[in-house]
C-alpha cells in the first residue's frame, strides 16, 4: 500500500468547493491543520463565518472524498467556527467587544427592511453567532414589537443601559424608552445624538455581529452612521420595482462614498404565490434586485417572497426564523445571512488590537 502524502490530501481538499466562500478549501484558507498517521488522515477546518448546519455537511463531504482516495482508510474531519473582526472606516476604531457592525439599509420605506433585518439577525444567531440588534430608526422604531420585547432597559450605574434580550438577541431601541404611540418630534441633531447614545451607552458585551436597522433614506442618521460609527459592511434591501430601485441605488452609492463595503443586495417581495391555487406572480416586477447588483458590481444575496405569514409573524413578535425555524422561508433567510457573513469574511481583518501602542518619551 502506498504511503499517504500531504500533496495527496491537499489535492482532495482543493477539489472541494466551500459553498458560501465560493473557493476551494485551500484557496479559502480554512484548512488549519492536516495530520497523517499511517492510513488515517486528520483534518481541521476553521470557518470564519457562522455556517450552521453546513458545518456538518462540509465535514461529511470532506470525509467521504478523503476516504475514497487510494491509501486512506479513515478520515477524521472537524469543522470549527471562528468569527473575526473586520476593518471599518479608516478614520474610526472598532468598538471594543463588537467584532462587526453591519448596517441594513434601504433608500425607500415600505420595502420590508426591518423585517429582513430582524430575520437576518435571528438567522445569524441560529447558526451560532452572538448577535445584537440596534434599532436606528428613531422616528419609527419597530424592533421592540418584532422581537416581542416590552418594558424598559435597566441602568445599574445610572449611566449605561443593559440591552433587552429575546431569542438570544441583545437589542436596543428608542422604542424601549418611550411609549409605543409617542411621536419623536425631534430635529436632526437630537436624532443623531440619540443614535450615538443608544450605541455607545449600551452594555453590549461580546458580539460577533451588531445588526443596525437603519431608517429609509440618506439623511442625518445615515450620515452619522458613516462618519461616527465603525461599520464593517452594509446590506441593501429593495423590492423589484423601478421606483424602489432608484432609491436603493442612492443608498448603495452613499455607502460606497463613505468607504463602507456593500456586502450585497436583498430583493424582498420578489414573488407572490397564491395560497389557494399556487399561481406565482411577480407583482412588483421581476429581477430588479439582481440587475441592480450586477450593474453596481456587488453580490446578490437572494430573494424573499411576498408572503402574508412573514408580516403576521413579525407583528406577533415571533419573526419567521423563530416561528418556523425549519420552514422554507427561514431557510431563505439563513442562506442570505450565510452569504452576507461569508462576503464579510472575505474582506480585510482588523488587526489593530494585535499591535502594541508605541509611546515615545523625551528623557
Description:
With 363 residues, this protein is of the alpha/beta class. 33% of the residues lie in helices and 21% in strands. It is built from 11 helices and 15 strands. The strands form 4 sheets. Strands 8-9-7-10-6-11-12-15 form an 8-stranded mixed β-sheet, sandwiched between helices. A 3-stranded mixed β-sheet has the order 3-4-5, covered by helices on one side. Helix 5 packs across helix 6 and helix 7 runs parallel beside helix 8. The longest helix has 18 residues. The protein starts with 5 loop residues before the first helix and ends in an 18-residue tail after the last helix.
What tags apply to this protein structure?
8-stranded mixed β-sheet, 33% helix, 363 residues, alpha/beta
Briefly say what this structure is.
The chain has 363 residues and is an alpha/beta fold. The protein has 11 helices and 15 strands. Helix 3 (113-126) crosses helix 11 (328-345), helix 5 packs across helix 6 (220-228) and helix 7 (242-257) packs parallel to helix 8.
Fraction in helix: 25-40%
Overall structural class, as computed from helix and strand content, comes to alpha/beta
Series of H and E elements: HEEEEHEEHEHEEHEHEHEEEHEHHH
Q: What assembly state would you assign to the polypeptide chains in this entry?
A: single chain
Q: What is the spatial order of strands in the main beta sheet?
A: 8-9-7-10-6-11-12-15
Tally the beta strands: 15
The tally of helices reads: 11
Q: Can you give the mean pLDDT?
A: 88
How much of the sequence lies in strands comes to 15-25%
Estimated radius of gyration = 22 Å
The profile of the biggest β sheet is: 8 strands, mixed
Low-confidence stretches: none
Terminal Cα separation, in Å? 70 Å
* C-alpha geometry: globular
